[in-house]
Specification:
ligase, RNA3'_term_phos_cyc_type_1, Dihydrodipicolinate Reductase, domain 2, RNA-3'-phosphate cyclase activity, RNA3'_phos_cyclase_dom
Length: 487
């Protein structure tokens, strides 16, 4: 059963609209009309069973933003009507105010076929191509795709790197991340230079040992850890990662968040790691260093984080370093407590003001993190950084308001943790379920590329168990069950 052929002009228009290109005379991906409810989005709107292709056919469609040379371009299908077209004209349903991409009330993923995943590293003709300018359009696409390329042995080309940013191309922290992945697996990297908008990466075998990544700027060490950690978990021996740069940087998780929130939650996938903060580094110089010790595992276990429980503790730390007085830390702490007290009156709030020792910090910086712990072990946080001309009370209030927003939606993870869990859910063996607030664009991007480069299948559903006024969702993933061949 085949759909009628669409004129070449329409196919060319679709390719231009959705950012795909021709390879060897064929279109890398021609999306069916029923997928095109919003030309800005690579996600597909929900469709009726009458108009969607059979699942066996869908499995081989080349994904948005990724071109694979073995894929046959699909023909167009007749237009259908979405199952839930009430929310917006396109028939898709927007997941939260910050999502930025329409997504159906239920979405199933499509991964690469088993033959492609299980084959050894392919030759140049089999290189997977990723468009780094779609969706989030930043460094996350690079981190997720290169980590999975390393893990799965898939030669990779990423083009239009960070096309969605004011300064497209590789920045020092992105280049450092690529270099540590290259060194971890003795791979080959081409195009690895500051400002480059296209790289090719050919992975080798993941090994353990000591590896160093130095941004030589205030680039986030936590983002370096994000790209390297999934890889070393499937290495041949224990790893020691020396990550140098900014420990408390804008537009990235603070190292305090990594230690206080990310670490205890991600270890539920059945692995542990040690994070030793040798020295803190701040904008603009960086100069911080974190040492990660981690041992490989045979496989990752799935997680189930769907029970929120009640908040039992609220704690945190407000810090200053360098030339700043401890008074500012006390002001940040007091402002955060006052803000939280307006909503939560019956809990003791313990936010410690701290001045970092001079021998354990490089440069001058300040900030605060506030964590709420629940009866089921959920951890949600809010954080903020100080900067020149910014009132210390405002810093504390920003962190408190972020925490309260994360508590209000009823999820078990906060907005910052959502996307960081996706790659581990995709690699785990079994079904993982996480309850969250509105799905962020970073999370949608991570899901999209994790699905397309692995056999993992994700679904996102609106939680029906909670207060209808709460914007709560269940992210479910049937993991690919990655097995460490070295153990």
């Amino acid at each position: 059963m085949f759909a009628p052929r669409v004129p070449a002009r329409c196919r060319l228009e679709a390719n231009r609209t959705l950012g795909f290109r021709r390879r060897g005379g064929d279109v890398a991906r021609c999306p069916p009309l029923w997928e095109r409810t919003d030309p800005r989005s690579p996600y597909q709107a929900p469709r009726s069973s009458a108009t969607a292709p059979h699942s066996a056919q869908r499995r081989h469609l080349a994904p948005a933003g990724i071109a694979h040379p073995h894929r046959t371009p699909p023909t167009y299908q007749p237009t259908g009507t979405g199952r839930d077209s009430r929310s917006q004209p396109g028939g898709g349903r927007r997941l939260g105010p910050s999502a930025g991409t329409p997504l159906g009330s239920r979405r199933r993923g499509r991964g690469l076929c088993e033959r492609q995943l299980c084959s050894p590293p392919a030759m140049d003709g089999d290189r997977v191509e990723v468009d780094g300018g779609i969706m989030e359009g930043g460094g996350q696409i690079l981190r997720v795709s290169t980590a999975l390329s390393c893990l799965l042995g898939l030669p990779l080309r990423v083009r239009r790197i960070r096309a969605g940013r004011s300064q497209p191309g590789l920045r020092p922290q992105h280049l450092s991340g690529l270099e540590i992945i290259r060194d971890l697996c003795e791979g080959k990297l081409e195009g690895g230079e500051i400002g480059s908008t296209e790289i090719t990466f050919t992975p080798g075998k993941i090994k353990g040992g000591t590896h160093i990544a130095d941004t030589k700027t205030a680039g986030s060490v936590c983002l370096l850890m994000q790209v390297a950690m999934p890889c070393v978990l499937f290495g041949a021996s224990p790893s020691e990662l020396h990550l140098k740069g900014g420990t408390n940087a804008e537009m990235a998780p603070q190292i305090d968040y990594t230690v206080m929130v990310f670490k205890p939650i991600v270890e539920k996938f059945n692995f542990t790691f040690n994070c030793n903060i040798k020295k803190r580094g701040y904008y603009p110089q960086g100069g911080g260093e974190v040492v990660i010790h981690i041992s490989p595992v045979k496989e990752l276990s799935p997680i189930n984080l769907t029970e929120r429980g009640i908040v039992t503790k609220i704690y945190g730390r407000a810090f200053v370093a360098g030339a700043l007085p401890i008074k500012l830390a006390k002001e940040m702490s007091a402002a955060a407590v006052r803000c939280i007290r307006k909503e939560i009156r019956d809990l003791y709030i313990n936010i410690q003001p701290v001045r970092e020792p001079d021998d354990q910090a490089f440069g001058t910086g300040s900030g605060i993190i506030v964590v709420a712990e629940t009866s089921t072990g959920s951890l949600l946080a809010g954080s903020s950084l100080g900067k020149r001309g910014k009132n210390s009370d405002k810093v504390g209030i920003e962190a408190a308001e972020m925490l309260l927003r994360n508590l209000k939606h009823g999820g078990t993870v906060d907005d910052s943790l959502q996307d960081q869990l996706i790659i581990f859910m995709a690699l785990a063996k079994g079904v993982s379920r996480v309850k969250s607030g509105p799905i962020t664009l970073h999370t949608q991007t991570a899901i999209h590329f994790a699905e397309q480069l692995t056999k993992a299948k994700f679904t996102v559903t609106k939680s029906e168990e909670d207060d209808p006024n709460q914007d709560t969702y269940i992210i479910e993933c049937q993991g690919m069950g990655m097995i460490n061949p070295n153990l």
